[in-house]
Specification:
Layout (H helix, E strand, L loop, with lengths): L2 H24 L7 H17 L23 E3 L9 E2 L2 H15 L5 E7 L2 E8 L2 E7 L5 E3 L2 H4 L15 E8 L2 H13 L8 H9 L4 H5 L4 E7 L10 H10 L9 E3 L2 H14 L7 E8 L2 H7 L9 E5 L3 H13 L1
Bound molecules: the ligand NC(=O)c1cc2c(=O)c3cc(F)ccc3oc2nc1N.
Length: about 325
């Protein structure tokens, strides 16, 4: 079908479906059977899937807050996108360090990073050109958000070298953008997002990239999936190289030879957390040597060579802070 026909059919479907919605939701007097509504709604989704550039903000598919995952095309991750094991105390970090030392046979260096509170994103490049962007999904099957990531300013569309590369990072909404967006939504009588992470997810997982483009999303890239393509031996070198390639990499990182440095880093960023322009919910410890990472491998769910230390929830931390002030 050509775009013109699709446009005609879509505007007809939008008109009909919005009329049905109005009758159903506001006048409590459905005009058609649910099955008729659902069949036409699926027709609209199919057409919007085929012609995403024809999606309009008033389309019934856009009125449900962030688009349910089922409306976005699926992407299979060649290398699964795992999540991270979490710990909640320094003692557990020490246990993690002991496990690694026993497994490897000697102490190791860790690359220590902030844990950005957003949603995981994969970016695939062929010959240095961005060809696909996708969400984690269930780790094996994610959602295709390629058109949307093309609107995110700090994602390079073209690399300075013709590399075949997959990188992964966190997509987030800066706190200032989140506050502005929620003010606008409140003024328009729309539902507000609970936190920047939900706002980022709802803004990235849109069928209409024009909506994503208005949401001021950002990224911090933290992994090269195939580091052999960029000739690096450690996580810290990989992050340096990604910076040179034009990616936005979080600067608050360092290589630690023991956990004392990590203890100070945790204390520092637990204090700085509410002054940072982006949300963090902890720190991440990664075995710095990439060969050791490979040797340590992954469990079904998480890599064995890294751990996430989660801060206590912000409100709890603020309470403790207040107690200090009153003392
Ligand atoms: N939120 C984050 O700031 C952050 C998250 C991850 C991951 O989820 C992650 C998941 C993997 F399977 C492997 C490495 C990772 O590294 C990571 N590094 C980070 N800095």
């Amino acid at each position: 079908m050509d775009q013109q026909t699709a446009q005609t059919q879509l505007s007809q479907l939008r008109l009909e479906l919005n009329r049905y919605r109005k009758a159903y939701y506001t006048e409590d007097a459905p005009l058609v059977e649910d099955s008729v509504y659902d069949q036409k709604y699926q027709q609209l989704l199919q057409l919007e899937q085929q012609f995403p550039e024809l999606v309009t903000p008033d389309s019934p598919s856009q009125l449900v807050g962030d688009v349910p995952a089922s409306n976005l095309a699926k992407v299979t991750h060649e290398i699964p996108m795992l999540s991270m094991g979490d710990v909640f105390s320094f003692a557990e970090l020490q246990e993690f360090n002991e496990r690694i030392k026993n497994a490897v046979g000697h102490p190791v260096d860790y690359n220590v990073e902030l844990k950005i509170d957003g949603l995981a994103l994969s970016l695939v490049y062929q010959q240095g050109q961005l060809v696909q962007g996708s969400t984690r999904g269930d780790g094996s099957i994610g959602e295709d958000v390629t058109n949307n990531v093309r609107t995110i300013k700090n994602i390079p569309q073209t690399l300075p070298e013709p590399l075949d590369l997959e990188v992964r990072g966190e997509c987030f909404m800066p706190k200032a953008a989140f506050a502005k967006l929620n003010n606008q939504r409140e003024q328009n009588g729309e539902t507000v997002f609970a936190n920047p992470r939900n706002a980022a997810a709802g803004s990235l997982r849109q069928l209409n990239a024009q909506i994503t483009a208005q949401r001021q999303l950002s990224t911090f890239i933290y992994t090269v999936v195939n580091p052999q393509n960029i000739a690096v031996a450690t996580q810290s070198q990989a992050l340096e190289k990604m910076t040179q390639l034009g990616y936005h990499v979080n600067p608050e990182r360092f290589v630690s030879h023991d956990l004392q440095g990590v203890k100070a880093y945790i204390a520092k960023y637990q204090q700085l957390r509410d002054q940072l322009p982006y949300g963090i919910d902890g720190i991440v410890l990664k075995v710095n040597d990439l060969t050791l990472q490979q040797q340590l491998g992954n469990t079904v769910k998480v890599p064995r060579w890294e751990i996430a230390y989660k801060f206590p929830p912000e409100e709890a931390q603020t309470t403790i802070h207040q107690i200090e002030w009153t003392v």
